[in-house]
Amino acid sequence: MSQNLSPDSVPHADEMPMLGLGTWQNEDHDQCAESVRTALEMGYRHVDTAQAYKNEEAVGDGIAAAEVDREDVFLATKVWISRLSYDDVLESTARSLEELGTDYLDLLYVHWPSRTYDAEETLRAFDELYDDGTIRNVGVSNFEPDHIDEARELLDAPVFANQVEMHPFLPQEELRAYGEAHDVNLVAYSPLARGEVFGNPTLGEIADAHGVSEAQVSLAWLREKGVTAIPKATGADHISDNWESLALELSDDEVAQIDEIERSDRQINPDFAPPSWA
User: Fold this and answer.
1) What is the mean pLDDT of each run of 10 residues along the chain (278 residues)?
2) Alpha-carbon distance 151 to 143, whole Å?
3) Are 168 and 200 in contact (CB under 8 A)?
4) Alpha-carbon separation of residue 223 from 166, 246, 264 (angstroms)
5) Distances (CA, A) of 131 to 126, 134, 213
6) What's the rounded Cα separation, in Å, for the pair 140 and 153?
7) E strands within 170-256?
8) pTM for the predicted model, two decimal places
């Protein structure tokens, strides 16, 4: 499973750090490149993007500009739902590599089990990319347990990670249990519930007790659950605040208080999401 990091530790590139930089909606090229450079030079070693984010070139430029070797960066991207045929997976991944300025990916995800996704055809292409060393790990995103069961049955490569929305208001207990049972890492996008964590009294009280932000509390809670978080941040102050969450240790009582927040609030629910989300 994911490696637990401290702010001073640097992982090997074949391990997935438990805190990464998310880049969703960071479409301004210069801003995106600078945020990636800033994060890497601050200590981050996990960067997450996607074909649909339209910023892979900027992410690649940020990695190139940072005083960090590519081999020390865990780099992930995702294949969009319109490009999931066998040929499209291979062709679009080649374009992603070119834009990112790299000859391999540490992790490649199926972005959603939707639209052109055909488990047998799509995953055959992923297996080919894994076998030839283009990708080091196969991931899925927004998959429910039945989707992962099917993927695990069809793939020769292991399913390394499932990236889903997760935060204190959407604790994803079933998927966390599934991941622990089948050695599938859970990666949390929107781990700050798109800013909603800042208005919650429970998180605020715990944050005040530690002299930290609600964001740090949410990220520390995810880490206590064994979940990797990839919060989006563009400015150096937010990038730094999220990074400092690695030094925050929550007590068992504080974790329990967060667990008791009775609220199910999915921030991301497009019309092509799995029917079970409705």
Assistant:
1) 43 76 97 98 98 98 98 98 98 98 98 98 98 98 97 98 97 96 98 95 98 98 98 97 98 98 85 79
2) 10
3) yes
4) 12, 8, 20
5) 9, 8, 43
6) 14
7) 185-189, 228-229
8) 0.94
Exposed, middle or buried, 267 (CB in 10 Å: 0-12/13-18/19+)?
Answer: middle
By C-alpha distance, which of 138, 222, 223, 146 is closest to 184? 138
The single residue listed with the structure tokens 């020769």 is: 156
Residue 268 Rama label (left phi>0; alpha psi -120 to 50; beta): beta
Residue 22 near residue 230, CB atoms below 8 Å: yes
Mark whether 178 is an active-site residue.
no
Instruction: Give the pair of three-digit tokens for residue 136.
Output: 């080091």
Q: Decide if 120 contacts 251 (C-beta within 8 A).
A: no
User: Which residues, 6+ apart, have CB-to-CB distance to 110 below 8 Å?
Assistant: 78, 79, 84, 117, 122, 123, 126, 139, 140, 141, 143, 151
Helix, strand, coil % in the chain, rounded to nearest 5: 45, 15, 40
